[in-house]
Amino acid sequence: MPSQLCMTHLAAKLRIWVYTMDMNSMAIESNGQFSINVDRRLSPKEQWEDFLHELCHVLRHSGNQMAMPDRYVNWQEQDASAFQLYAALPLSMLRNLALPENKNELIAYLSEEFQVTYRLAKARIDQIERRVLQGSLDYEFQQYTQNQSSKKYDPSNWSEATRLIMNKLEFLKSRGVPAGGKANRLL
């Protein structure tokens, strides 16, 4: 249920200390204990989103970003942003809801139901749409390539040269000549 998605519930389950202060949100590890500061100047929805972003750093990343190469820091930030989408609007929960068909109404509904910003709800729906489209394209491509490969091996589609070679191979096979070795010299 979307109502189970809240900072205090998740932090308690994961044994993470959560603070709110007038400073940028960040995750901190000290002696194996994790804490997350959430910027209290943000709206409640933005605080929740920042918490999820920082939670990814706690669960999946290690190291001090101040001492990391920029490319690695950028990768961690991209990973945390992707995690944030999945954690804020889990597909397993979306499947159990009666969702509006109109996209704008759907985004507004999800924004309220999951207590996320309209921007994040839109980003998640756009992501799901892209993945559904990619799945359809992958399936169509798979069907196309299967049809093409079945046409390639259909003897009625063979050229005269291919038919001649295939007949020689069948002849050699019927005589017990293994593929490779002598068969290559006889062709």
UniProtKB/TrEMBL annotation:
InterPro entries: IrrE_HExxH. It comes from the Bacteria. It holds the Pfam family Peptidase_M78. Residues 13-125 form the IrrE N-terminal-like domain. This is ImmA/IrrE family metallo-endopeptidase. It comes from Paenibacillus anseongense.
